[in-house]
Amino acid sequence: MTLSDPKLLANIRIVLTRTSHPGNIGAAARAMKTMGLAQLVLVDPAIFPNSQADAMASGATDLLTRARVCATLAEALADTTLALGVSARRRDIVAEVLTPPEASARLLTEAQAGPVALVFGNETSGLSNEELSLCQGLVTIAANPDYSSLNLAAAVQVLSYETRQAWLRHASWPQPDIDAATGDETEKFYGHLETALAELEFLNRGSPGKLMLKLRRLFARTRLAKEEVNILRGILTAAQEAKQAAVKARNPDVQ
Ligand code: SAH
Question: If you measure from the C-alpha of residue 154 to the centroid of ligand 1, how many angstroms do you get, rounded to a whole number?
Answer without folding.
Answer: 10
